[in-house]
Design a protein that fits this description.
The chain is α+β, with helices and mostly antiparallel strands. It has a single domain, classed as 2-Layer Sandwich (Alpha-Beta Plaits), CATH 3.30.70.141. 37% of the residues lie in helices and 19% in strands. It has a four-stranded antiparallel beta sheet with strand order 2-3-1-4, sandwiched between helices. Helix 3 crosses helix 4. The N and C termini lie close together (10 Å).
Length: 139
């Protein structure tokens, strides 16, 4: 089993979609091995998204992730990050495959309800950004 990070973003929390998104993930065969709700400030958002610093959408992304509470989840599945990206769908909900989380619940490229670690962008770094080793319960 390979673990990866899922963030249920402020737009989804505001729309009360936490449960349906988690059900979608669990129904796809993922195990939730850690979860917490928090409200990141701008400094935390800037640190988390530092890989995108200098890109035109960076400031918007930092403002958005710090605009309300989020739910962070470390999830595990064979195929890990790649499998999660398949389940959540393309960044643009209009281009996301039918039945994916972003296709079902996303409203725009920016407000697309979830963040899923990219396989090539170090999911373990993202997991440990939010969770200590003591908070990860693999079973």
């Amino acid at each position: 089993m390979n673990r990866t990070l899922l963030i249920i973003k402020p737009d989804a929390v505001k729309r009360n979609l936490i449960g349906v998104i988690l059900k979608h993930i669990i129904d796809a065969g993922f195990k939730v091995i850690a979860m917490k709700m928090l409200w990141p400030d701008k400094d935390m958002g800037a640190q988390f998204y530092e890989i995108h610093k200098g890109k035109p959408f960076y400031d918007w992304l930092v403002d958005f992730i710090s605009s309300g509470p989020i739910v962070t989840c470390c999830v595990s599945h064979t195929g890990g990050a790649q499998k999660l990206r398949e389940v959540v769908g393309a960044t643009d909900p209009k281009k996301a495959a039918p039945g994916t989380i972003r296709n079902l619940y996303g409203t725009s490229t920016g407000e697309n309800v979830v963040h899923a670690s990219a396989p090539d962008e170090n999911p373990e770094r993202e997991i440990h950004f939010f969770f200590s080793d003591e908070e990860l319960f693999e079973y």
